[in-house]
Protein backbone atom coordinates (compact mmCIF):
# COMPACT_ATOMS: atom_id res chain seq x y z
CA UNK A 1 0.00 0.00 0.00
CA UNK A 2 1.37 3.40 -1.04
CA UNK A 3 0.38 6.90 0.04
CA UNK A 4 -1.50 9.27 -2.21
CA UNK A 5 0.44 12.26 -0.90
CA UNK A 6 2.63 11.52 2.09
CA UNK A 7 1.79 14.02 4.81
CA UNK A 8 -1.22 15.55 3.07
CA UNK A 9 -3.54 17.01 5.70
CA UNK A 10 -7.21 16.59 6.45
CA UNK A 11 -8.45 17.94 9.77
CA UNK A 12 -11.55 16.42 11.30
CA UNK A 13 -12.97 19.82 12.18
CA UNK A 14 -12.50 20.96 8.58
CA UNK A 15 -15.19 18.50 7.47
CA UNK A 16 -18.39 19.57 9.27
CA UNK A 17 -20.67 17.94 6.70
CA UNK A 18 -19.07 14.63 7.58
CA UNK A 19 -18.52 14.86 11.32
CA UNK A 20 -21.41 17.00 12.53
CA UNK A 21 -24.47 15.87 10.59
CA UNK A 22 -26.49 12.74 10.17
CA UNK A 23 -24.77 12.26 6.79
CA UNK A 24 -21.70 11.14 8.71
CA UNK A 25 -23.47 7.79 9.06
CA UNK A 26 -23.57 7.40 5.30
CA UNK A 27 -20.00 7.60 4.06
CA UNK A 28 -19.57 5.78 0.75
CA UNK A 29 -16.33 4.91 -1.03
CA UNK A 30 -16.06 4.95 -4.82
CA UNK A 31 -13.80 2.09 -5.91
CA UNK A 32 -12.51 2.15 -9.47
CA UNK A 33 -14.02 -0.73 -11.44
CA UNK A 34 -17.03 -1.15 -9.14
CA UNK A 35 -20.41 -0.11 -10.50
CA UNK A 36 -21.73 1.50 -7.33
CA UNK A 37 -20.25 3.33 -4.37
CA UNK A 38 -19.68 1.11 -1.36
CA UNK A 39 -20.55 1.84 2.28
CA UNK A 40 -17.38 2.61 4.23
CA UNK A 41 -17.47 -0.42 6.52
CA UNK A 42 -18.28 -2.76 3.62
CA UNK A 43 -15.30 -1.31 1.79
CA UNK A 44 -13.02 -1.84 4.80
CA UNK A 45 -14.20 -5.46 4.98
CA UNK A 46 -13.06 -5.96 1.39
CA UNK A 47 -9.71 -4.29 2.05
CA UNK A 48 -8.88 -6.32 5.17
CA UNK A 49 -9.86 -9.53 3.35
CA UNK A 50 -7.51 -8.62 0.50
CA UNK A 51 -4.62 -7.05 2.39
CA UNK A 52 -4.14 -9.39 5.37
CA UNK A 53 -4.28 -13.20 5.67
CA UNK A 54 -7.57 -14.23 7.29
CA UNK A 55 -5.60 -16.74 9.38
CA UNK A 56 -4.13 -13.84 11.38
CA UNK A 57 -5.28 -13.16 14.93
CA UNK A 58 -8.34 -10.96 15.31
CA UNK A 59 -6.37 -8.17 17.03
CA UNK A 60 -4.07 -7.96 13.99
CA UNK A 61 -7.12 -7.87 11.71
CA UNK A 62 -8.63 -5.11 13.85
CA UNK A 63 -5.42 -3.08 13.62
CA UNK A 64 -5.49 -3.53 9.85
CA UNK A 65 -9.13 -2.41 9.74
CA UNK A 66 -8.41 0.83 11.59
CA UNK A 67 -5.37 1.60 9.42
CA UNK A 68 -7.28 0.79 6.22
CA UNK A 69 -10.26 2.92 7.25
CA UNK A 70 -7.97 5.85 8.04
CA UNK A 71 -6.14 5.51 4.74
CA UNK A 72 -9.40 5.30 2.78
CA UNK A 73 -10.97 8.37 4.37
CA UNK A 74 -7.87 10.47 3.94
CA UNK A 75 -7.00 9.43 0.40
CA UNK A 76 -10.59 9.81 -0.84
CA UNK A 77 -11.31 13.00 1.15
CA UNK A 78 -14.10 11.20 2.96
CA UNK A 79 -15.50 9.53 -0.13
CA UNK A 80 -15.24 12.47 -2.52
CA UNK A 81 -12.45 10.96 -4.65
CA UNK A 82 -12.33 7.48 -6.20
CA UNK A 83 -9.71 4.98 -5.03
CA UNK A 84 -8.02 2.23 -7.04
CA UNK A 85 -8.30 -1.35 -5.69
CA UNK A 86 -4.60 -2.02 -6.24
CA UNK A 87 -1.34 -2.20 -4.28
CA UNK A 88 -0.71 1.40 -5.37
CA UNK A 89 -3.57 2.33 -3.00
CA UNK A 90 -5.37 -0.50 -1.15
CA UNK A 91 -6.31 -3.87 -2.59
CA UNK A 92 -10.05 -4.52 -2.37
CA UNK A 93 -12.02 -7.76 -2.86
CA UNK A 94 -15.78 -7.56 -3.25
CA UNK A 95 -18.01 -10.32 -1.86
CA UNK A 96 -17.91 -12.34 -5.08
CA UNK A 97 -14.11 -12.26 -5.11
CA UNK A 98 -13.99 -13.32 -1.46
CA UNK A 99 -16.31 -16.24 -2.15
CA UNK A 100 -14.14 -17.32 -5.09
CA UNK A 101 -10.94 -17.05 -3.03
CA UNK A 102 -12.23 -18.78 0.09
CA UNK A 103 -14.67 -21.28 -1.52
CA UNK A 104 -16.00 -23.58 1.22
CA UNK A 105 -14.26 -21.54 3.93
CA UNK A 106 -16.16 -18.40 2.98
CA UNK A 107 -18.77 -18.38 5.83
CA UNK A 108 -16.21 -18.74 8.63
CA UNK A 109 -13.65 -16.40 7.08
CA UNK A 110 -16.27 -13.76 6.32
CA UNK A 111 -17.57 -13.95 9.88
CA UNK A 112 -14.08 -13.44 11.29
CA UNK A 113 -13.35 -10.43 9.08
CA UNK A 114 -16.75 -8.81 9.69
CA UNK A 115 -16.32 -9.19 13.46
CA UNK A 116 -12.98 -7.35 13.25
CA UNK A 117 -14.61 -4.58 11.25
CA UNK A 118 -17.63 -4.27 13.56
CA UNK A 119 -15.48 -4.18 16.69
CA UNK A 120 -13.55 -1.19 15.28
CA UNK A 121 -16.44 0.51 13.49
CA UNK A 122 -15.71 4.14 12.69
CA UNK A 123 -12.30 4.14 14.41
CA UNK A 124 -9.49 6.08 12.77
CA UNK A 125 -5.95 7.20 13.58
CA UNK A 126 -5.32 10.87 14.32
CA UNK A 127 -2.23 12.95 14.99
CA UNK A 128 -2.94 16.46 16.32
CA UNK A 129 -6.59 15.82 15.41
CA UNK A 130 -5.69 15.12 11.77
CA UNK A 131 -6.08 11.85 9.90
CA UNK A 132 -2.66 10.30 9.50
CA UNK A 133 -1.11 8.81 6.40
CA UNK A 134 -1.67 5.25 7.64
CA UNK A 135 0.88 3.40 5.56
CA UNK A 136 1.37 -0.32 6.10
CA UNK A 137 3.36 -3.11 4.50
CA UNK A 138 3.69 -6.87 4.58
CA UNK A 139 7.08 -7.53 6.18
CA UNK A 140 9.91 -5.28 7.35
CA UNK A 141 13.59 -6.15 7.21
CA UNK A 142 13.59 -6.23 11.01
CA UNK A 143 13.14 -2.49 11.25
CA UNK A 144 10.44 -0.32 9.72
CA UNK A 145 11.29 2.57 7.42
CA UNK A 146 10.64 6.17 8.44
CA UNK A 147 8.63 8.54 6.29
CA UNK A 148 11.80 10.59 5.84
CA UNK A 149 13.78 7.55 4.73
CA UNK A 150 11.05 6.66 2.23
CA UNK A 151 10.24 10.05 0.76
CA UNK A 152 12.41 12.70 2.40
CA UNK A 153 9.27 14.08 4.07
CA UNK A 154 9.48 13.66 7.85
CA UNK A 155 6.30 12.78 9.72
CA UNK A 156 6.50 12.48 13.51
CA UNK A 157 4.16 9.47 13.65
CA UNK A 158 6.01 7.49 10.95
CA UNK A 159 9.39 6.80 12.52
CA UNK A 160 11.56 3.71 12.23
CA UNK A 161 10.90 1.08 14.92
CA UNK A 162 12.24 -2.43 15.51
CA UNK A 163 10.13 -5.26 14.11
CA UNK A 164 12.43 -8.23 14.69
CA UNK A 165 9.64 -10.81 14.61
CA UNK A 166 9.23 -10.13 10.89
CA UNK A 167 12.24 -12.37 10.31
CA UNK A 168 9.95 -15.39 10.79
CA UNK A 169 7.65 -14.21 8.00
CA UNK A 170 7.59 -16.44 4.89
CA UNK A 171 8.11 -13.23 2.89
CA UNK A 172 11.17 -12.08 4.81
CA UNK A 173 13.90 -13.08 2.36
CA UNK A 174 14.01 -13.69 -1.37
CA UNK A 175 16.53 -14.19 -4.18
CA UNK A 176 16.07 -13.23 -7.81
CA UNK A 177 18.43 -14.12 -10.64
CA UNK A 178 19.12 -12.94 -14.20
CA UNK A 179 21.64 -13.76 -16.90
CA UNK A 180 23.91 -10.82 -17.66
CA UNK A 181 22.07 -10.37 -20.96
CA UNK A 182 18.69 -10.27 -19.19
CA UNK A 183 20.11 -7.89 -16.60
CA UNK A 184 21.41 -5.47 -19.23
CA UNK A 185 18.05 -5.45 -20.99
CA UNK A 186 16.58 -3.80 -17.87
CA UNK A 187 19.04 -0.94 -17.51
CA UNK A 188 19.66 2.29 -19.45
CA UNK A 189 23.40 1.61 -19.18
CA UNK A 190 25.40 -1.50 -20.09
CA UNK A 191 26.88 -3.49 -17.22
CA UNK A 192 30.13 -5.46 -17.53
CA UNK A 193 31.23 -8.24 -15.23
CA UNK A 194 33.76 -5.93 -13.58
CA UNK A 195 31.05 -3.39 -12.69
CA UNK A 196 29.64 -5.61 -9.95
CA UNK A 197 32.85 -5.14 -7.98
CA UNK A 198 32.65 -1.37 -8.10
CA UNK A 199 28.94 -0.69 -7.71
CA UNK A 200 28.24 1.20 -4.46
CA UNK A 201 25.19 0.84 -2.24
CA UNK A 202 24.50 3.67 0.21
CA UNK A 203 22.50 2.35 3.17
CA UNK A 204 20.19 4.45 5.34
CA UNK A 205 19.47 4.12 9.06
CA UNK A 206 16.86 1.40 8.56
CA UNK A 207 19.23 -0.84 6.60
CA UNK A 208 17.69 -0.09 3.21
CA UNK A 209 19.41 1.17 0.07
CA UNK A 210 18.99 4.92 -0.17
CA UNK A 211 20.85 5.12 -3.47
CA UNK A 212 23.04 3.00 -5.74
CA UNK A 213 25.95 4.37 -7.73
CA UNK A 214 27.85 2.95 -10.68
CA UNK A 215 30.43 5.44 -11.90
CA UNK A 216 28.52 8.62 -12.72
CA UNK A 217 25.18 6.85 -12.74
CA UNK A 218 23.07 7.14 -9.59
CA UNK A 219 19.70 5.52 -8.85
CA UNK A 220 17.50 5.85 -5.79
CA UNK A 221 16.87 2.59 -3.97
CA UNK A 222 13.17 2.88 -4.79
CA UNK A 223 14.02 3.26 -8.49
CA UNK A 224 16.07 0.08 -8.39
CA UNK A 225 13.28 -1.80 -6.61
CA UNK A 226 10.78 -0.76 -9.28
CA UNK A 227 13.12 -1.47 -12.18
CA UNK A 228 14.04 -4.95 -10.93
CA UNK A 229 10.58 -5.72 -9.49
CA UNK A 230 12.13 -6.90 -6.22
CA UNK A 231 10.32 -7.10 -2.85
CA UNK A 232 12.11 -4.32 -0.98
CA UNK A 233 14.87 -1.72 -1.00
CA UNK A 234 16.99 -3.79 1.41
CA UNK A 235 18.95 -5.56 -1.32
CA UNK A 236 22.41 -6.86 -2.20
CA UNK A 237 23.75 -7.48 -5.70
CA UNK A 238 26.30 -10.14 -6.68
CA UNK A 239 27.67 -11.59 -9.91
CA UNK A 240 28.73 -15.20 -10.42
CA UNK A 241 31.50 -15.25 -13.02
CA UNK A 242 31.26 -19.03 -13.37
CA UNK A 243 27.59 -18.99 -14.40
CA UNK A 244 27.39 -15.47 -15.78
CA UNK A 245 24.35 -14.80 -13.62
CA UNK A 246 23.43 -11.75 -11.55
CA UNK A 247 21.78 -12.40 -8.20
CA UNK A 248 19.87 -9.94 -6.02
CA UNK A 249 18.95 -10.95 -2.48
CA UNK A 250 16.39 -8.99 -0.49
CA UNK A 251 15.06 -8.80 3.06
CA UNK A 252 11.54 -7.58 3.79
CA UNK A 253 8.50 -7.23 1.56
CA UNK A 254 7.03 -3.83 0.76
CA UNK A 255 8.06 -0.22 1.30
CA UNK A 256 8.58 -0.82 5.02
CA UNK A 257 6.77 2.30 6.28
CA UNK A 258 4.20 2.20 9.08
CA UNK A 259 2.63 -1.01 10.36
CA UNK A 260 4.22 -4.30 9.47
CA UNK A 261 1.42 -6.81 8.95
CA UNK A 262 3.51 -9.80 9.99
CA UNK A 263 4.82 -7.76 12.90
CA UNK A 264 1.24 -7.01 13.89
CA UNK A 265 0.44 -10.72 13.78
CA UNK A 266 3.43 -11.52 15.98
CA UNK A 267 2.35 -8.89 18.50
CA UNK A 268 -1.23 -10.20 18.49
CA UNK A 269 0.07 -13.73 19.04
CA UNK A 270 1.89 -12.39 22.11
CA UNK A 271 -1.34 -10.99 23.53
CA UNK A 272 -1.11 -7.39 22.32
CA UNK A 273 -4.33 -5.58 21.44
CA UNK A 274 -5.05 -3.76 18.20
CA UNK A 275 -4.57 -0.46 20.03
CA UNK A 276 -1.17 -1.54 21.37
CA UNK A 277 -0.11 -2.64 17.88
CA UNK A 278 -1.15 0.66 16.32
CA UNK A 279 0.45 2.80 19.02
CA UNK A 280 3.70 0.89 18.49
CA UNK A 281 3.91 1.33 14.73
CA UNK A 282 2.42 4.87 14.60
CA UNK A 283 3.94 7.13 17.24
CA UNK A 284 1.94 9.58 19.38
CA UNK A 285 -1.34 8.94 17.60
CA UNK A 286 -4.89 8.75 18.95
CA UNK A 287 -7.55 6.22 18.04
CA UNK A 288 -10.94 7.90 17.82
CA UNK A 289 -14.30 7.42 16.18
CA UNK A 290 -14.94 9.83 13.32
CA UNK A 291 -18.54 10.25 14.54
CA UNK A 292 -20.65 8.91 17.41
CA UNK A 293 -23.26 7.47 15.04
CA UNK A 294 -20.62 5.21 13.48
CA UNK A 295 -20.00 3.40 16.78
TrEMBL record:
InterPro entries for the chain: Bact_Sporulation_Assoc (IPR051922), SpoIID/LytB (IPR013486), SpoIID/LytB_N (IPR013693), Spore_II_D_firmicutes (IPR014225)
Boundaries of every Sporulation stage II protein D amidase enhancer LytB N-terminal domain copy: 36-127
Listed PANTHER family: AMIDASE ENHANCER, N-ACETYLMURAMOYL-L-ALANINE AMIDASE-RELATED
Protein's recorded name: Stage II sporulation protein D
UniProt organism field: Lysinibacillus xylanilyticus
